[in-house]
# Entry
Amino acid sequence: MLKLSSKKTDRTAIVTGAGGFIGSHFTRFLKEKGYFVIGIDVKAPEFSVSCADQFILADLRDIKSANQYIRHCNELYMFAANMGGIGYIERIHALVMRDNVMINANCLEAARLNGVNKVFFASSACVYPLFKQKSAKFNSGLSEKDVYPAQPEPGYGWEKLFSENMCLAYARDYGLYIRIARFHNIYGPESTYKGGKEKSPAAICRKIAQASKNDLIEIWGDGRQVRSYCYIKDCCDGVFRLMHSNCDFPLNIGSSEKISINSLAKMIASIAGKEIKIKHRLDGPQGVRGRSSNNTLIRRTLGWEPTVPLKVGMKENYLWVQKQIERDRFKRKLKETDNKKVGISIK
Ligand code: NAD
# Structure
């Protein structure tokens, strides 16, 4: 059986979902700050080797695993979730709700039973009411107080709102130290870029990286939907600041820089140095019309807000996706050559 470190210091942390996009970046972030980090996930990171001191493969839907592994730490960061972009969460409601409620309930209970001092929960902008996001007009964004009366995203959004409330109940009833962030579209290198779980920045980067001059790029909806995107470096910084602040209510971590999907595609095309044309798939999943982060409360509470300009972060993102596309092409060619050698043709 895996032996866990028993040295519990101020700088010992457990990161759940450490095999995922934000969890693997945050593990690296904590290591750079000198933490001893234990990562837990059902899978290892896809694009790099985990920086965790110990990496445990475990399914946190199982209370026994949660109870066995969530201990001997001062800080617990809860990133584990069954999630994906709009094309994924719009289709799969029951599984996402069941998996995530189980993961979050088990982790909270294990933290309580095993004396974890500080708990962070990753919530989402999907908790905000759909009726407040019907307009794509550039407005002042979603404030934390906008969350009620509730009408979150079906499935995923309801689960996040429930789990936020479960966290707050653990704080009230058991005195657990809880910090909650509502992430707004986090993007950056090493996020899923293909396969169905990818989000709009990675998907558009992939389509543009694969395109030749004047190719048609497919965008879901009319492209006038408005979003704000927060770079992963800002996200890690914000999570750490929030965890060590006295803010015991949910806080947005997102950028207030708004952009329409059409303009985002144009921005990425200009980064790539490619001329592209946009084809709108009006029947495609497109989410709400307008969603962005209002940062008044985070500025007031933490004296900080995300700072990386979209164009700067998106360049890093595009270059990374482009590298993956080149690698995929190379692998495919290699496979074709190997198959030709043994007389197999692939379509
Ligand atoms: P991700 O899918 O890359 O990472 C989630 C990780 O959780 C995955 O590695 C997955 O294997 C793991 N996981 C799933 N089920 C598990 C289980 N039963 N036991 C253990 N691990 C399990 O997603 P992400 O983008 O890194 O998101 C991290 C957190 O932030 C999630 O809670 C997500 O809901 C939240 N969030 C992310 C965004 C965003 O824009 N990326 C926005 C809002 C909220």
The pocket of nicotinamide-adenine-dinucleotide is lined by residues 17, 19-23, 41-43, 59-61, 79-83, 99, 103, 122, 124, 183, 185-186 (CB under 6 Å). The chain has ten helices and 13 strands. The chain has a mean pLDDT of 93.
